[in-house]
TrEMBL record:
One Pfam entry name: TatA_B_E
Protein name: Sec-independent protein translocase protein TatA
Domain of life: Bacteria
Classification via Gene3D superfamilies: 1.20.5.3310
Cellular localization per UniProt: Cell membrane
The species this protein was found in: Paenibacillus glycanilyticus
Keywords assigned: Cell membrane, Membrane, Protein transport, Translocation, Transmembrane, Transmembrane helix, Transport
């Protein structure tokens, strides 16, 4: 989706954000975005860590069923 956004596109997006939100609000928005991204990564990591446990439980259930 964002494969075609280059440096000039990022500069334009940053300039528009600066105009819309103002210089005082940008650090707060960046911090909130970073916190949200960090929480998303932590939750997806937790799901990925649980996956092998779930697979082993399924295998055990299949073995006891047979």
């Amino acid at each position: 989706m964002f494969n075609n956004v280059g440096i000039s596109g990022l500069i334009i997006i940053l300039a528009i954000a600066l105009i819309v939100f103002g210089p005082a609000k940008l650090p707060q928005l960046g911090r909130a975005f970073g916190d949200t991204l960090r929480e998303f990564r932590n939750s997806t990591k937790g799901i990925a860590d649980d996956e092998p446990e779930v697979k082993s439980n399924i295998i055990e259930l299949e073995q006891t069923k047979n």
